[in-house]
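Chapter summary example.
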Amino acid sequence: MTHETRDPANGRFRAEQRFARSFDALDGIFAFVDRAFELLALDRAHLHDVRVAIEELFTNMVKYAPDGAPEVSVALAVAGDELTVTLTDFDVEPFDIRTSPAPPLQGPASERQPGGLGIHLVRQLMDGIGYHYEDRTSTTTLTKRLR
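The structure predicted for these 147 residues follows.
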């Protein structure tokens, strides 16, 4: 079930939905994001970046915290010219992508240690990253300037 709130007077919108901790949930997540972009008439030039960032973080949650709560929350909020994407993972250990080391980008791919490229990509695509952890709840917040 999607929860939406709108305040047209100040240009605020927020939509949140929970998705099963499963790779199969990605289609539903993309539909949720696409619908939010349509409802808000957001520039679709940003849609690819947002989808890629959400996919990377969600798949990491599924892959690296398989024993977490059965659902992960995805929320999109718009205030003015900024989009905020929040992924909340419940009953998990902390993982702050801001502290993840940058992957080696030099040399042939066959000689590099795997891992870290997806998080590096998220850092490049989004304008800001925030993180909060409390009571076994991990919340990653991404921001994207829309203008």
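To summarize the output: The longest strand covers residues 12-20.
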